[in-house]
Amino acid sequence: MLQTQTSVTVGAGPLTIADVVAVARNDARVELDPDALAGVAASRAIVEALADDTEPHYGISTGFGALATTFIPADRRAQLQASLVRSHAAGSGAEVEREVVRALMLLRLSTLMTGRTGARPQTVETYAALLNAGITPVVHEYGSLGCSGDLAPLAHCALAAMGEGRVRVDGELQDAADALAAAGIHPVVLAEKEGLALINGTDGMLGMLALAIHDLHGLLTDADIAAALSVEALLGTDAVFADDLQRLRPQAGQAVSAANIRTMLAGSPIVASHKGPECTRVQDAYSLRCAPQVHGAARDTLAHAELVAERELASAVDNPVLTLDGRVESNGNFHGAPVAYVLDFLAIAVADVASMSERRTDRFLDPARNQGLPPFLAHEVGVDSGLMIAQYTAAGIVSELKRLAAPASVDSIPSSAMQEDHVSMGWAAARKLHRAIDGLTRVIAIEAMTAARGADLRAPLRPGPATGSVIATLRTVVPGPGPDRHLSPEIEAATDLVRSGALRAALPTPLP
User: 122 and 222 share a domain?
Assistant: First the structure.
């Protein structure tokens, strides 16, 4: 069994998706690489030299955005940075999840530790201290256009580092000043350039992308598992998943999904029961036969998204930025388009995988298509409704997933007096993907519990070793066939099994 990461070192090299998950969800401790911290101090010296220059330098001795030509005297620059953070902490709506805020803060810390932002070491150390103390700034659902980065969400975090605004500690809402004092953390007084350095990045959308990639690696395997359960219990054929057939179309993800389904169905007495010449079925429906093609396409989409995420995790996103040779240059690297596109792409894949899963669930409930099972898998037909409304639930989720698949990144509303005249909407893309992944988890869980009931109703035929292990795990929280009972708790319990990875863990041989 994999050990949970207990610490993550920032600055020694690019963070990984596993690092983001460890800090965001598992409260891994953040350590700062000493050499990288020395580089932060060196780059800060460049900013301080420019601050004394009579020539204006954007973000150091000028205003921001459309006010970039306004020179700010030295005695007003601390107020300039604080005002920037206060005015940009303009989020609205519900609080976003703790894990999202922690991921966002870790990724901003990672950029600060590159030495390309000009932040002071003490400011960097304060961010690490907030994470290690479990202090989570309150960040709201609305406020980011994904360019210049996730301004409002990052500003709420910077505000907390200043000892202002609201935070949560162990779930309790507190004033930031009180929480910092209790943890022995001194609020930062921002110096030249630091306000910009703390808010100018793609960290919110990237954090949610990293969490989504981690979750989807497991969920696409769960989708293969659920599809195999359905193929088995609907008396489908495993012949279409043969390796030589898959090689005729050498898509990488398709090969993985087909191999997973073959592994799941190996040695199944149910599958073997209808392989003889007496079986007159020629082809299964697409939702059974084409599962590797759809799940595989989603896997390939995920691989592309992971490549984009890894590049972004190795980036230093700020404006202006300190170059390696000591220049301070304006740039457009804060634009969220690369991240926004793949967030939207993943939402499309999630909706399609869930849509196919729901179609397999529906087949179980129709006596014209379920190969001899009772209508709705009911115990006493006419008296009991069986899993009729579980399919409604899945269908309702899938309908929403299709709406969430509409891309956010094709929209743009100009801002900042037309200075920021094209934005990515990457934060919105990330928020809808975050919700979509929860929906996919539930749809897969409903398919798994439906297929498990269908397999049980094939008795005395038994499922195969792999599918049987999954069904046995489901049976620890979801009872087998019987008279109607309260279904909602069973759906939630099955969803928890999928979300936790318990179905994958139940397999005799792990699947990729």
Answer: no
> Do 471 and 232 touch, CB atoms closer than 8 A?
no
Kindly report, residue by residue over 57-78, the tens digit of the pLDDT. 666 766 666 566 667 777 777 7
What 8-state DSSP symbol labels residue 415?
B
Q: Please tell me whether residues 383 and 501 are part of one structural domain.
A: yes
The verdict on residue 92 lying in a domain is yes
- Strands 172-175 and 166-169, bridge-based pairing: antiparallel
Whether the Cβ atoms of residue 445 and residue 494 lie closer than 8 Å to each other: yes
Q: Is there a domain that residue 174 lies in?
A: yes
In angstroms, the CA 105 to CA 204 distance is: 8
Q: Count of domains in the chain?
A: 2
58 flagged as catalytic: yes
Classify residue 1: in a domain, yes or no: no
What is the span of the domain harbouring residue 218? 209-320+332-412+420-505
Q: Encode pLDDT of 147-199 as tens digits.
A: 888 999 999 999 999 999 999 999 999 999 999 999 999 999 999 889 999 99
Residues 85, 166, single domain; the answer is: yes
User: Quick one: 150 and 231 in the same domain?
Assistant: no
Q: Are strands 7-10 and 29-32 parallel, antiparallel or unpaired?
A: parallel
Residue 510 lies in a domain: no
In a 10 Å sphere around its CB, with 0-12 CB exposed, 13-18 middle and 19+ buried, how is residue 29 labelled?
A: middle
φ, ψ of residue 72 in degrees (nearest 5): -115, 125
pTM of this prediction? Answer: 0.95
Q: Within a 10 A sphere around the Cβ of 447, how many other Cβ atoms?
A: 31
- As beta bridge partners, residue 92 has 142
Instruction: Specify whether the CB–CB gap between 241 and 262 falls below 8 A.
Output: yes
Among 58, 142, 286, 392, the one annotated catalytic: 58
